Amino acid sequence: MEAVEFLRGALEIPSVSGQERAVAEYLVEGMRRLGYAKAWVDEADNARGQIGTGPLQVVLLGHIDTVPGEIPVRLVGDKLFGRGSVDAKGPFVTFVMAASSLPPSVLERMTLHVVGATEEEVPSSKGARYVVDKLNPDFVVIGEPSGWQGITLGYKGRLLVRVRREKDNFHSAHHEPNAAEELVSYFVSIKAWAEAMNVGQGPFHQVQYSLREFHIENPDNRQFAEMKFDLRLPPRLPVEEAIRHLTAYAPPTLDLDFSGREVPYVGPKDTPLTRALRAGIRQTGGEPVFKYKTGTSDMNVVAPHWRVPMVAYGPGDSTLDHTPMEHLEIPEFLKAIEALRLALVRLADQAGTS
Predict the structure, then answer these.
(1) From its record, what is one biological process in GO terms (predicted)?
(2) Which of 35, 54, 77, 232 could form a disulfide linkage to 109, CB 3.0–4.6 angstroms apart?
(3) 121 is in an annotated binding site
(4) Has 70 been annotated as catalytic?
(5) Cα–chain-centroid distance for residue 343?
(6) Tally of domains within the chain
(7) Is-catalytic flag, 120?
(8) Looking at the structure, do residues 141 and 175 belong to the same domain, yes or no?
């Protein structure tokens, strides 16, 4: 099957964030072979394709980078193993194949801009940020695993926090907390604040916290400690409000730095795009379901710029993201291609009658 072999070839090319050029060139060559009018690697190393000539502008934006961790690419029964099979080369190849299989009558009414973005797995989101001011879509689909019957309407926001403390050395018998202990106390206070915020809230509406790094140094007569943690923010907690809380809990001796300020996003359930996807899923034999994700994606990056109907869609079980057992079920992959193809046909039909 062409789609499976195309995806397998993409999985066999490592593309850890920042090293996507080789897989982008492979994907571009595939798009050319599939009949795309234009296909190229842009200045951000995104794999770009354009097909169709119609006035309706649709962006299909996935990502082609992966987290580190090699998984031997292999087909075991109906399961295709490989890093990125689910997150998110599988969803991106779904986009490429669905767009390439549209009939000429649809492509006369619609132009599809397919973007395989770089550095989604790191805070830079280089690829998505590069294209936000270069495209003007009417509809956007983000390539992330939702399961072929799932339509993701929203993602939490994110805030990365780096905390530092430097102070003079003193004897360990002294009662004063050392630099590392001050950071521990601060993190415990933030944990208590988050847990108080979460009382009575479901998973999507909770504040999540995760300690990522902790580093201690004692050069000469000084102590130095640094920690990094991130927060996943529900829609009820804007980034700037979270920063106010974090700052209020910090004693003046701590140095705080904030980055990765991704705003939460939740889209409406009833739009021409969601209606088209629901219809496509049903026509393929599925029962559509709406989802809300506790992580972040390039949806958080582009939503403030592209204020149009937007969802995330793609085959795969997101619980396998970043795991050593990451794999994609081939029947699901093929159904997702067909469901998205039918959805794009319906979207063009809706535009033609409006």
Answers:
(1) lysine biosynthetic process via aminoadipic acid
(2) 54
(3) yes
(4) no
(5) 22
(6) 2
(7) yes
(8) no
